[in-house]
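Consortium newsletter contribution from the modelling node. Members have asked for a concrete example of what our holo predictions look like. Here is one, prepared for the magnesium ion complex that several groups have been discussing at recent meetings.
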Amino acid sequence: MSNILLVAVDPAFGERVSSLTGHHVVAVDAHASSTSAERHRDFRPDVVFVGTGVPIDRALTYASSVSADWPDLVLVLVSPTTRRLARRAERAGFEHVIDPGTSAADLERLAGPADVEKPADAAHRVVVVASPKGGVGKTTTAVNLTGVLAAAAPWEVVLVDLDLQFGDASAMLGLTPQNTVVDALSAEGDDSMFVRTLLTIHPSGFYLLAGADGPADGGGVTGDQVRKLVSQLSTSFRYVVVDTSAGLLEETLASLEEASDLVMVTALDVATLRSTHKELDVLGELGLVPAGRHLLLNRAHRGAGLTVRDAERMLDVAVPVVVPRSDRIGLAANHGTLAIDVKDARVRKPFDALAAAISGVRPTRHSHRGEKLA
Ligand SMILES: Nc1ncnc2c1ncn2[C@@H]1O[C@H](COP(=O)(O)OP(=O)(O)OP(=O)(O)O)[C@@H](O)[C@H]1O
Ligand SMILES: [Mg+2]
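And here is the predicted structure:
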């Protein structure tokens, strides 16, 4: 027996699949609501039929996302096809492209059992990027760190914009998302397949779960919802990078409960350094500083009146990663591109070092005060 998921297929096709005996069939439409996700919380499909109710680009994104993680899942695109579409579908991870008129007998053949679970991977990391202050460079850090991790592990990284007021990672990445983290948080079930349909693809090889459209949208989210979402994503992706709002909001604390790493972003000014010290103290008292703790000093420049050493004295810890103040970083953000793609080693190296400290791979050539804090 197979578990079969039908995503936005036409009704006649759906009926033909449902008539196959001995299979468990669940159907959702392209805008599957949280209620439908809740209803099917324990449903893990063996075969997924994706119909024409899903825009083709979204179907391909979805396929490349799930096929990387569930190689045993049989993905079938149900659509009138052209050779070009068939090639794109195959590259994205669809095993078959079939016509919506495919007979029940042929469908029966596609619906063979395939019940293999992917083993848990101990190398999975959840990295929360935080800071007590706004505007210090959390999102800049999160997007560029994600870019470096994705270069090493394409399609195994998801960036979650947990800024529930004015999430702007998508703008910094030049993306126009159709869905946001709020849609994912309100999916009360445990359906990671559904959450994957909400991701926006970045051409560099990672996914974004975009931030809320505005404060009205992100209100009412609970810590439980955040914990569940982060933990769910961490079973599907090798790296989950979480961008947060300034300060210790409930959603940030909840994400830290699931975190393997904290990247604390600070700056060369007395107020930010003091607040950073306090925030680290408070998180320590709450038991919310994960084993991987990384300090990143952003916008370092000579005219600040403070040195990195001064900052380390004030914080009472080493600052292993220092990002210089650079017009290129601001420009990249305004152009919706990654600063790490700018040909400037001063900008790239600190993010390489941070990624290396997180992924456990020591930077070689790019070493930049790259040791991880204990
Ligand atoms: N090292 C840097 N040099 C120059 N500009 C920078 C640097 N880091 C960040 N910026 C710019 O500063 C602005 C704020 O950065 P960013 O959005 O990353 O901060 P944030 O901490 O995420 O802010 P918020 O709290 O509002 O979410 C952006 O325009 C960004 O491009
Ligand atoms: Mg931000």
